[in-house]
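Data availability (excerpt). All sequences and predicted token strings are deposited with the supplementary files. A representative entry, General stress protein 69, is shown inline so that the format can be inspected without opening the archive.
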Amino acid sequence: MEFTTIPNVQKKASRVALGTWAIGGWMWGGSDEKLAISTIHKALDMGITVIDTAPVYGFGASEEIVGKALKQYGKREEIILATKVGLAWESEKIYRDSSRKRIFKEIEDSLKRLQVDYIDVYQVHWPDLDTPFSETAKALKELLDSGKIRAIGVSNYSVEQMKEFQKSAPLHVNQLPFNLFERELEETVLAYCLKHQVASLGYGSLCRGLLTGKMRKDSQFQGDDLRKSDPKFKEPHYAKYLACVDQLQQLAKQKYQRSLIALAIRWVLDKGISVALWGARKPEQLEAIDSIWGWKLNSDDLKEVDQILTRMIPHPIGPEFMAPPEHRRKP
Ligand code: NAP
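Structure token line:
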């Protein structure tokens, strides 16, 4: 395991975190609680110290499962619990709300569900354009000063939005989409984080399973699985992505004797992301973590990967399909 530090957090942060969106079930075709708890325990056994969740994941379910698992496991003083704030819901319809009132309600709900008395990293899930950023930032600063949170984070914020936020509060973390197929923010948000000592948590490191090599032309997704609406998983794009996966898989095998998963996570880390989020809901999915350590991609390797990507996916599709409506507030 490699470790890093997150500003203001006095614990060692593993460079791979367990992402628990799928564990909440919603938008992932359901989930199994027993298996989810074993997955969280397995992650901790393997040396992962960062667990990322959010109130909206399963409308409280993910946080509750994480809370139960951590209560059973102990070692709270070593675990960096990252959760989010600012997405509200009504009848499973979600909307952005990062008002002070909402933040002060959500923190108490999250602390209760997670069964803890502080949260290590508290991230604004999506920028709320209908609330002044100063209001959101000042509310988080109050929570920081009170000790209820240890680090302030945002997620899905642009550079301009981070700068605006930083006028009213310190910023320790930005969580952004980042993987081989979704690298639009490399030169902007990631570069800013690297320059200004904001820790970056990269989400979708495996591009929702596409970069595991397990997807097939006829793969089917169940129930409310978000990949049914992901344009990358639809033709005419899907075949191109699968062909690129094949090339990347060959490179990983022939040049590094590693799996595609190892290459995908190594790439994210070697591009400068502080912590790569790995969405797993079965313990055995985490076995591959051990293949990430002890090697690195150098600049020639990164160029070779770039060549494959440019040749195979000249017009990449971003992760925008996941964004909640920009302006729709509570009806
Ligand atoms: P991800 O990590 O890119 O991919 C998860 C997918 O990879 C799942 O389909 C899972 O399979 C598959 N997988 C994992 N390990 C595998 C293995 N060893 N072999 C084969 N398949 C494997 O996707 P993600 O969950 O979207 O992102 C990770 C985390 O980032 C989330 O859980 C969440 O914490 C965070 N996130 C944050 C935001 C935000 O707006 N801030 C947005 C998205 C995600 P199964 O389907 O079979 O389980």
